[in-house]
């Protein structure tokens, strides 16, 4: 996203200016990151794909922050298990379309944000998805499988649209982003000015997911490897691989422990991870993943969804360095780490 261009979709002919009432509403945010950043958010259209726990938390935060338009795609009905992490849903919503049940409650958070919903499966297929992506400024896909994320990333790259992906597998969570060539403003603390430095422009080149998955850990020291918590990284990558092999299904029985362990260790060996620091995937990590991967925990969704929303706002506001480029959250320890995958 270029600093010289407003964060508006091609469908918007004229950027919307922030009114006095909006300036009063967003006063605290404007003082935090500036009027120009708030203006970019105000003119942004964001597409969120899949409406589960992570999307719920993300949507809440970006709507309260004052984006221009939110488009939510989801074709599923509210199920009883959605009531845990899906705080937009009520008992009486079970059986209704998720987006239909939640739309009015999302709008009530911030009436200044336009909310649209989509339920057609064809919207995410072929040229239909290309058309949807061309009409937005940023795509956020939650709780999806790896193969769809790769395809969606390719579509976003063709249209020059940034992509965020995030989700949870029980106690584990992840965020991946491909912001293409992203330019942002950072404070130069090396300057000699009395105020601590001056603002400088920084450009970062991101890699698409298909390249990020080929990332090699060669040359990473023992200490650095341990600090990145490779267990969380590679069990998530192994779950993606398992889903791909099993037509989208996750391991949900102890009979899959050996298979998931083998997949994990194959990925670790292929990535050339420092054997002194991380020789193999711990058996207990695999067992926990198999036990919990199909479940949603509200606390994990809150952490991942909150960070996802925060980083989306950073990318739109171009005032701070966004995530680069793969974040994992380990609910077993309450810790998060960022790995630069195939980024220089």
From TrEMBL:
Q: Which InterPro entries does the record associate with it?
A: ThiF/MoeB/HesA (IPR045886), ThiF_NAD_FAD-bd (IPR000594), Ubiquitin-activating_enz (IPR035985), UBQ/SUMO-activ_enz_E1-like (IPR000011)
Pathway of action: Protein modification; protein sumoylation
* Keywords noted in UniProt: Nucleus, Ubl conjugation pathway
Q: Where in the cell is it found?
A: Nucleus
Q: Which GO terms describe its molecular function?
A: SUMO activating enzyme activity
| Domain THIF-type NAD/FAD binding fold: residue ranges | 26-341
Concerning its family, UniProt says: Belongs to the ubiquitin-activating E1 family.
- Xref: PANTHER family: SUMO-ACTIVATING ENZYME SUBUNIT 1 (PTHR10953:SF162), UBIQUITIN-ACTIVATING ENZYME E1 (PTHR10953)
This protein is called Ubiquitin-like 1-activating enzyme E1A
